[in-house]
Amino acid sequence: ADIPASYRNARAFMVLAMTLSAQRDLVADLRANTRAIVALDPQEDYIEGNEAAIRTMVSQLDIFMPSAEEVQRLLGTGDWDVAARALAELGPQVVVIKLGAEGSLIYDRRRDAQFRIPAFPVKNVVDTTGAGDSFCGAFMACYLQDPARPEEAARAGAVAASFAVEGYGVDPLFEALPARMRERLETWRI
What we know:
The chain is of the alpha/beta class. It has helices at residues 20-33, 51-58, 68-75, 80-89, 131-145, 150-164, 178-187, and strands spanning 12-15, 37-40, 63-64, 94-98, 104-108, 113-117.
């Protein structure tokens, strides 16, 4: 009921951190009542004891974007390659495991392809708060432009996260203007 009717025509929804019940209800509603791509970034605080409910929720997603810590809590493994495939077997077409300073691992189930994208190099990391959310937002924006190349979406996510870690709070994100994002993407060689 909180989502305006006009928003329900969106091409995608990125569900970020909130309570498990709120995420579960929102994902179920979006899956049942829209044709949108549904992506989820879970929250590590609610995983323990709720693994079955989370697996059910993940089965309704198109894209699942957990952090390394969230994968560890959910699956009990630090083998990201195995974890990405196991999570994709639950239903999502794309699994993106955010590995912090180590970058990300992307598994595209449609192509049975896996990619590792390093973190964008930053000279002075000030504060990592918001880096994961920045990554997810940029990933989705880029993914919607070309769903066949989630590895490029992860590169865009890494660049967005690089802005987030260069200062405190949201201030550095105001400097992430499209031209600066493009410049970093174009000059970054992996």
